[in-house]
C-alpha cells in the first residue's frame, strides 16, 4: 500500500498496512483526492470493503487515535484504559501499565524522561517479584486542548516528588 500511494502520502493520504485515510482542507479538494485514490486502487486492481469505509467525515478513529481537523488526538478509550488501571502490585502489572502509557507517548512532552521511574521500577522488580517499596501512581487529566499526566513517586509516606508532563495537539 505504501508503494501504491507513495506520491500522495503526507499530502492527501496516510496509509498504515491496509488502512487508508484521505485528508483534505475543503470539500472540493476532498473529491479530487478521492478521485486520485480511486484511480490508483483501480490501476492496481485493489478493492475496498464498503462496510469499513466512511466518506466525507470531519473526524474519526484511525489506528486507535482520533483524527479531526485539529489534528491527531488521543482516543478517550486509551485514556480510560490508563485511568481504570489500578496501581501496579508486581512487575507484570507495571509492564502492562507502561505499555498503555507508551501508546500515549506522542502526546506527552519529554515522555521517556517522565516514564523513567516506571522503567527503573521494572528493572528493580526482578523476574516476578513485587515492585519496589515506593509506589507509582498515575493521574491523567484530559481536556479538549491537551493531555496532562502527573506521576507521583512516594518513597516515604510524608514526602512526595512531583513531576508534571503536558503536551498540546500534534498537528498534521
TrEMBL record:
Can you tell me which residues the record assigns to a coiled coil? none
Which positions make up the signal peptide?
none
**InterPro entries given in the database record:** DNA/RNA_pol_sf, Rev_trsase/Diguanyl_cyclase, RT_dom, Viral_Replic_Matur_Polypro
Pfam families, alphabetized: RVT_1
Q: Which residues cross the membrane?
A: none
Q: Taking every annotated instance into account, which residue ranges of this chain make up the domain Reverse transcriptase? A: 1-67
Q: Which SUPFAM superfamilies match?
A: DNA/RNA polymerases
PANTHER family named among the record's database cross-references: POL PROTEIN (PTHR33064), RIBONUCLEASE H (PTHR33064:SF37)
Q: What is this protein called?
A: Retrovirus-related Pol polyprotein from transposon 17.6
Amino acid at each position: 500500500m505504501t508503494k501504491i500511494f507513495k506520491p500522495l502520502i503526507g499530502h492527501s493520504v496516510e496509509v498504515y498496512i491496509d488502512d487508508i485515510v484521505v485528508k483534505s482542507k475543503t470539500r472540493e479538494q476532498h473529491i479530487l483526492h478521492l478521485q486520485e485514490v480511486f484511480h490508483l486502487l483501480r490501476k492496481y486492481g485493489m478493492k475496498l470493503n464498503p462496510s469499513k469505509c466512511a466518506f466525507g467525515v470531519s473526524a474519526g478513529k484511525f489506528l486507535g487515535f482520533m483524527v479531526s481537523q485539529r489534528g491527531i488526538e488521543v482516543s478517550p478509550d486509551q485514556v480510560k484504559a490508563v485511568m481504570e488501571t489500578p496501581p501496579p502490585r508486581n512487575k507484570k502489572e507495571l509492564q502492562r501499565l507502561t505499555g498503555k502509557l507508551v501508546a500515549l507517548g506522542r502526546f506527552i512532552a519529554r515522555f521517556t524522561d517522565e516514564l523513567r521511574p516506571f522503567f527503573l521500577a521494572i528493572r528493580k522488580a526482578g523476574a516476578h517479584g513485587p515492585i519496589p517499596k515506593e509506589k507509582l501512581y498515575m493521574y491523567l487529566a484530559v481536556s479538549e486542548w491537551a493531555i496532562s499526566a502527573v506521576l507521583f513517586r512516594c518513597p516515604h509516606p510524608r514526602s512526595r516528588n512531583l513531576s508534571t508532563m503536558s503536551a498540546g495537539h500534534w498537528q498534521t
